């Protein structure tokens, strides 16, 4: 099953919700007037694009209707699709700029961080790449055990230490192992919760400095994992992580479990960060590289 079919299936709840609201906007108005725009804006907010992004999308649609002399709501719907795709295109074409690729994965407990790492590892090994997982979440009981199960499933190597070990020490060991084996991709799991922001910032800063020192030519990414079912709360969380952790890309999980998949558009637009992966199920291949146009086509 390709991305479009899988994302279409995974977005069933969101699409059904949109069809009962947005569908009636496009079919219920014979002309594009102020009432049409107001209804549209409200529907976009209900789909969890958030107020700012919904207002922005509606304003861009007004402009497109004026400039392109659009007459029908069908024309307006196609213009809206193009607008949403543009919003989602932020940073999408950025390719890895160095070797190895080092991905520092962050996110609060419960968002599916470890599962996302396992699925990513499977993708990379499926491409013939040598992958190493580093169990840097030493605070949560059984986090390394969980990661080891995923490493075995994905055919990836694993570096771990005992529970309670210094995460920076685990990362250092992992990088030495990766250098010795000429590893292509290193994925580092980090603690999902520390007792305050300063602690989290210090921990992530320490890990980043070690990566910079040991692998100055690597392509370094900070991947934030968000739970799609948390909607706008997830966006607040993402803003905080961006401030303290230098997030460069986002993965949004559990989109199959929510009627508010519009959060994907809000995250890209508000944070101006690329949504790199989306998760639409439990299977190992249900985390997919994100394709903006296919996503919007499946959504509308």
H and E string? HHHHHEHEHEHEHEHEHEEH
Strand elements, count: 8
Structural class by SSE content = alpha/beta
Low-confidence spans? none
**End-to-end Cα distance:** 20 Å
Profile the largest sheet: 8 strands, mixed
Shape call: elongated
Oligomer: single chain
Distinct helical segment count: 12
Q: Helical percent range?
A: 40-55%
Mean pLDDT: 89
What is the radius of gyration computed over CA atoms, rounded to a whole number of angstroms? 21 Å
Sheet with most strands: strand arrangement: 3-2-4-1-5-6-7-8
| Proportion of residues in β-strands | 5-15%
Structural features, described:
The two termini are 20 Å apart. This protein has twelve helices and eight strands. It is of the alpha/beta class. Strands 3-2-4-1-5-6-7-8 form an eight-stranded mixed beta sheet, with helices on both faces. Helix 4 packs across helix 5 and helix 10 runs parallel beside helix 11. Helix 7 links the parallel strand 2 and strand 3. The model has no long low-confidence stretch (mean pLDDT 89).
Key terms:
single chain; 8 strands
Short description:
The chain has 300 residues and is α/β, with parallel strands linked by helices. The chain is 54% helix and 14% strand. The chain contains twelve helices and eight strands.
What does the secondary structure layout of this molecule look like, with pairings?
Layout: H1 3-10, H2 12-28, H3 34-46, H4 51-68, H5 73-88, E1 101-106, H6 113-126, E2 131-135, H7 143-154, E3 157-159, H8 167-181, E4 185-189, H9 197-214, E5 219-227, H10 232-245, E6 249-253, H11 263-271, E7 275-279, E8 287-289, H12 292-299
Parallel strand pairs: 1-4, 1-5, 2-3, 2-4, 5-6, 6-7
Antiparallel strand pairs: 7-8
Helix pairs in contact: 1-12, 2-3, 3-4, 4-5, 5-12, 6-7, 8-9, 10-11
